[in-house]
Specification:
By secondary structure, this protein is an alpha/beta fold. The chain has a single domain (19-147, 189-237), classed as Undecaprenyl pyrophosphate synthetase. The protein has 8 helices and 6 strands, in the order αβααβαβαβααββα. Strand 3, helix 5 (121-130) and strand 4 form a beta-alpha-beta unit. Helix 2 packs across helix 3. The termini are far apart. 33% of the residues are buried. The structure holds farnesyl diphosphate. Farnesyl diphosphate binds at residues 26-31, 44, 47-48, 51, 68, 70, 75, 86, 89-90, 93-94, 142, 197.
Length: 249
């Protein structure tokens, strides 16, 4: 499909069955770069261009919530050079894109832990993101230094402190209370989780929130992921029957 042909797919989307929230695991940058005879980091650079296209497409189809996995708590285990490159690429991309995001109705925030981040990183992120927080067309979460287990640990720490200080009783801890203490508090759970590059696993991504998500996998490496494939994932999602553990009526 040529880059513009995705527009032919857009009218096929059933507006009444739009997913509210799509979460993406952008995988395969390193393999893509290797295939082109380039260094892994060039794959990440190419990946950013695709993030931009997918955000633009998300706006075009009026998606409300989009979450992308940019850097996991496990990614610190990569070479120092690659980690430093990713940290810089992600912050530079935010700084480079923020004006456009603000103008296009996007409300962007980074979700993840502050642990191990270089000093001042979080402050720069917040300074930039804050400029978009009046927007409400598309909520874009960048999962940065994100790990689902770390997210749960931090939630449990806050909740247990509230119990200790008498603000909350153990028997009052419900699913809602836990959801309200996650980085995604106040947002709907993802309806659809997309993973590229042929890997079929969740990798510590939104583990609480994706309990009833539909999963969509493709062999495509992230830098080759297209707007058309993104729309196709939504069309496939709309064919699925979601029962949330209940019997079909
Ligand atoms: C996985 O591919 C990709 C990553 C760990 C990084 C993804 C980050 C970006 C595309 C930058 C996003 C930037 C913003 C501002 C949202 P991999 O390196 O694991 O690939 P491999 O499995 O082929 O080795």
């Amino acid at each position: 499909m040529t880059s513009d042909n995705y527009k032919l797919l857009i009218p096929k989307i059933d507006k009444d069955k739009m997913p509210n929230h799509i979460a993406i695991i952008m995988d395969g940058n390193g393999r893509w770069a290797k295939k082109q005879g380039m260094k892994r980091v060039n794959g990440h650079k190419a990946g950013v261009r695709v993030v931009r296209e997918i955000v633009e497409t998300a706006r075009e189809i009026n998606l409300k919530y989009l979450t992308v996995y940019a850097f996991s708590t496990e990614n610190w285990g990569r070479s120092r050079m690659e980690v430093n490159y990713l940290l810089k690429l992600i912050l530079d991309s935010l700084i480079g894109e923020i004006d456009d995001l603000v103008q296009n109705g996007v409300n962007i925030r980074f979700i993840g832990t502050e642990q191990h981040l270089p000093p001042g990183y979080d402050v720069k992120v917040e300074e930039n993101c804050r400029r978009s927080w009046h927007n409400n067309d598309l909520y874009l979460n960048v999962a940065m230094n994100y790990g689902g287990r770390r997210e749960l640990i931090e939630a449990v720490q806050v909740i247990s402190t509230k119990v200790k200080d008498g603000y909350l009783k153990p028997e009052d801890i419900t699913e809602q209370v836990i959801s309200d203490h996650l980085y995604t508090a106040g947002m709907p759970d993802p309806d659809l989780v997309i993973r590229t590059s042929g890997e079929i696993r969740l990798s510590n991504y939104l583990i609480w929130q994706s309990t009833y998500s539909e999963f969509w996998f493709t062999e495509t490496l992230w830098p080759d992921f297209s707007r058309a494939e993104f729309i196709q994932s939504i069309l496939d999602y709309q064919e699925r029957k979601r029962r949330f553990g209940k019997r079909e009526k």
